[in-house]
Amino acid sequence: MARPVEFDRAEALEAAMRLFWAQGYTATSLSELLVTMGVGRSSFYAAFGSKRSVFVEALGLFSARTSQMLMGSHESAADLAAIGDFFRKTLLEAPKRRVMRGCLMVNTVLEMAEVDEELSAIAANGLTQVERLFERCFEKAQGSGEYPGQRSASDLAAHVMVLNQGLRVASRKRVRRADLKKSVETGLSLLGLPTTH
Fold first, then answer.
1. Which domain range does residue 81 map to?
2. CA angle, 28 as apex, 27 and 33 as ends, to 5°?
3. 16 in a structural domain
4. 123 in any annotated domain
5. What tens digit of pLDDT does each residue of 103-122 get?
6. Which among 177, 182, 179, 189 is positioned nearest to 90, based on CA atoms?
């Protein structure tokens, strides 16, 4: 019996994530996935188990990357500036092709809402984690007196998350970057947050 060809699992998962991000879960065939990942069928099943399993891992990777992007700014920059930095890095300065894919988690919630409740819930949980990071930014800013006001940190974070999700959907409609920038700046300024540079 031939041994499965060895491959870099992390690189294969990265490739899978990008393919799912571009095409969605349903539109991605297993054969296309194997070619993109550079993995043979037997190696794929041994390492990942199924298309569904690798998709769940891809969602986890995307969620972790998104959270890390916000956490990195959160640790090093002013708390409220971290939110503006997040939009700048993921929407306004990211390559156009990446921006037009939207957000894998938002895309999955929309695609799977009436099809697969479990996958939709996994993606929604990733979005909740991002919202919690927004909430931490507001909590620290309110605690230090940087952001006065009566609104709770959770309410403010929920508002920013609605802005975030709307922008990700809009970005898939080939909205001009200049228009996205206006929407980001308007949304942030209405909350009294620092806008993008």
1. 52-190
2. 170
3. no
4. yes
5. 999 999 999 999 999 999 99
6. 177
